[in-house]
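If you are new to this repository, start here. Below is one unmodified record pulled from the training split, so you can see the exact layout before writing a loader.
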Amino acid sequence: MPDKCEKYKKLMMGLIDNELTSEEAIEVNNHLTRCTSCRQEFEELKRSSASLKDLNYDEQRDIELDKIWKTPYSRFAKYTGIIMIITGWIAVIIFSLIEIVKSNREPLVPRLSTIVIIAGFIILLLVVIHDRIKTYKSDPYKEVER
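And here is the target side for that same chain:
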């Protein structure tokens, strides 16, 4: 009997977490109705699992970091960094466009391809920024702490 119980003991947590197939769940439940020691162990596992679900997994350091990132200074720094990156990309794109237009040494096809790629990037960037602003304004969960 112990060898047979070992098979079911390995499946008990899967039953608690609803990770077993219906056939496996039926098989384990049938065994639990017949085997008192496995049923006692299963009940202990259920109690332990229930108490573990109530634990808070946020470490003190995580809580402190969340507080720091929500300060006005941190938000200012984050948005300033984003604006600087976007501004830098725009400057590089404008410089590249000017150089492509001024340069007559390069064949026309690579120059036009580069212009199309840059234009596509700008369009996608503007669409993402527009969608982000639009969804932020109408987001019903923006005040919910994540």
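Two things worth knowing about this chain: The helical segments are 2-16, 22-34, 36-53, 60-69, 72-102, 108-138. Residues 72-102 form the longest helix (31 residues).
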